[in-house]
Amino acid sequence: MTAPLRLGLAGLGTVGIGVVKIVQRHAGLITARTGRPVTITAVSARDRTKNRDADLSAYAWEDDPVALARRDDVDVLIEVMGGHDGPARAATEAAIAAGKDVVTANKALLAHHGQELAEAAEAAGAVIRFEAAVAGGIPVIKALTEGLAGNEIRRVMGVMNGTCNYILTRMQAAGLPYATVFEEARQLGYLEADPNLDVGGIDAGHKLSLLAAIAFGTRVSFDKVELEGIGNVSIEDINLADEMGYHIKLLGVAQMSGRGLEQRMTPCLVPAESPLGQLQGGTNMVVLEGDSVGQIVLRGPGAGEGPTASAVMADVIDLARGLRISTFGQPAATLAQPVAARSATPAPYYIRATLLDKPGALAKIATCLGEAGISIDQMRQLNKPGEKDDLAVVLIVTHKAAPADIAHALDQFGATGVMLGAPVAIRIEAV
Amino acid sequence: MTAPLRLGLAGLGTVGIGVVKIVQRHAGLITARTGRPVTITAVSARDRTKNRDADLSAYAWEDDPVALARRDDVDVLIEVMGGHDGPARAATEAAIAAGKDVVTANKALLAHHGQELAEAAEAAGAVIRFEAAVAGGIPVIKALTEGLAGNEIRRVMGVMNGTCNYILTRMQAAGLPYATVFEEARQLGYLEADPNLDVGGIDAGHKLSLLAAIAFGTRVSFDKVELEGIGNVSIEDINLADEMGYHIKLLGVAQMSGRGLEQRMTPCLVPAESPLGQLQGGTNMVVLEGDSVGQIVLRGPGAGEGPTASAVMADVIDLARGLRISTFGQPAATLAQPVAARSATPAPYYIRATLLDKPGALAKIATCLGEAGISIDQMRQLNKPGEKDDLAVVLIVTHKAAPADIAHALDQFGATGVMLGAPVAIRIEAV
């Protein structure tokens, strides 16, 4: 039996308390699996007096997480405070500077400072692990970094924000508009204090940028993720997509094209019958595609005390077993500078446009598409006779087209003089 | 840069050649990810002269895989020959005796000899890895052993024989009987030389026994798996199940009940809308349930050159990175002797019985169920008027019942004198 692995736990919110519970409940199981005891020696949080759902009396208390990280009786810092700067960053840097390993659930911290933290960790002989930062309880970092390590990764996709998927599937199931379901989600406590982290796609974008770094051996580049939230997804488009056999998801896609790394976190149409299309409510799903393995789909809870703590403990147990891998799967210095490509990979697009119902209006729109080199797969006018007869809603599905060509055509729509409001265009991702 | 990791490859069939291709194609990628070169130094197969789809000229040749395993320039034996005794076992034992690590795709070998091989490996300071042995390209051994290591596992389920799932989904899609689709599968080359390994559930049972050992910390006990193949699944039952919203799958289930470890590999009804129910064709799926994480679903290709070689290489890369874990996730000596429980966990059952159409026949069957303590959820007679009016086909769905009670009731059916042939009973698994 080797010496215990001693944890310092910074953050006693939902995830932190979940970690305490597993360490306490499964001490025997964990020792059997790792060959050594795993113990918590000290904890830190903002408010010592808060009533928490766990017995913390055996642990030393530190008001300052940086002091926690530096304690001699802490081998590993568990950082579950959150926030991409401030105490989370300071404590992580302090732990690394002291040569200690860090397990973190903090996607924002790594999305913003992953490269410098990885370099610092490697220089100090420390390891950073972050299974809990992406897709909650799904062991996707491990699947990608280790399980598919013999593959050149072709594409990574995922629905990685449960709140957005809840909102979109609830809109569809209940036929309710975005604003109503957003308000429901807020009242249910599903939204972050800054809801834009969820519905603006930022949280999911953080996660995608971490997966992309591992998948393609590139530096984390969250600032290069094309971000579009779900605030403009209308119930009308959800219903029209459904009629055609598609569901709308906030889908992250990372892939290497001839022009470099593409990272998108945007609403997409996916086939209703695909695993991604069938995903309901707050569940997460990640799809990994490798040159040898083909397609692997991972599905599970993306948040919550138990699932997130399970992921934190997987990292802790890896460290207790002696597994030491570079943060993003290869030495930080060898990660390539990603080419800042906007997406160039062609795809079919769903386009909905409201036109003044004048003779030739449809032809003008079709001409814009044709002149941009885009061919039309389906085109139909949605109004039933007698209904809103001063305007025509037109639904178009294109054949595969480059995103830039789509953007150009939509620009040209405006110059036709027949548009009523802005057109909607949503990518149809082949999954 | 540390020294190369030198592989000895025993077996040059589909999987072996797949490994050669990855090692050759991704030498740079693998070195970047592991910090050291991974090379093949020697290979072995039955027939040296056979034309193979890879350039093997740089590798030493051994006719005898045992000699390969003992070579001084081999650090790791890759055993992809198959067979639970004979050369595969001899080579594996020779490698372990020489203190060398083994990566194997051989589920039969480990299902039969896993405990003794694990003990020998640990005594010799060697490691056995077998990601490729279960569910092909899906990194499920890693997900269970490492990714969910902080959980007490509640249940493991899986569709892990692609040929069986192909046959069952093809029967349903085409409305064809088992014998016809079995013959199709044989002609397509989907079946093992001994088809009973596939359709008898043996191959899938091997896999289940390995997952169960890891999940529950028990010795591999393939001989305790309740095995029932798909040979008796009729198109009639597939169609009737479908009408009720279920699909029939050859489903493996391992769970710990009050009476010990239960392992079943049997046809089951699962909800058509569940991830398992939706699984089509040769794809595999494994469902892992842990006390903290909840339910994780993994889906991917269960066989084939690329996927299986991907899994072999994941193990090789783990070894190159220095990961060393006990074969079944904890020291072999600490694995418990599993209680040889036949399944006792209650479930609803689907029962189809053909009765002589006499007054009181239905009541007699219902009485048998009632006397066994089984209550009926649905019961209906299937014959349409005028059709086969000398007999009545009765479909029953029970409430949750213990398997032993179901078996007892079916026994009693025979004594009623109203049965025409044997009844069919299929477990409905809650997934």
UniProtKB/TrEMBL annotation, chains A, B:
NADPH binds at residue 107. L-homoserine binds at residue 192. Gene3D superfamilies: 3.30.70.260, Dihydrodipicolinate Reductase, domain 2, NAD(P)-binding Rossmann-like Domain. GO terms for molecular function: homoserine dehydrogenase activity; NADP binding. PROSITE patterns: ACT (PS51671). Its EC number is 1.1.1.3. Pathway: Amino-acid biosynthesis; L-methionine biosynthesis via de novo pathway; L-homoserine from L-aspartate: step 3/3; Amino-acid biosynthesis; L-threonine biosynthesis; L-threonine from L-aspartate: step 3/5. GO terms for biological process: methionine biosynthetic process; threonine biosynthetic process. The active site is at 207 (proton donor). Keywords: Amino-acid biosynthesis, Methionine biosynthesis, NADP, Oxidoreductase, Threonine biosynthesis. Residues 350-427 form the ACT domain. Pfam families: ACT, Homoserine_dh, NAD_binding_3. Belongs to the homoserine dehydrogenase family. This is Homoserine dehydrogenase. It comes from Szabonella alba. The lineage of its organism: Bacteria, Pseudomonadati, Pseudomonadota, Alphaproteobacteria, Rhodobacterales.
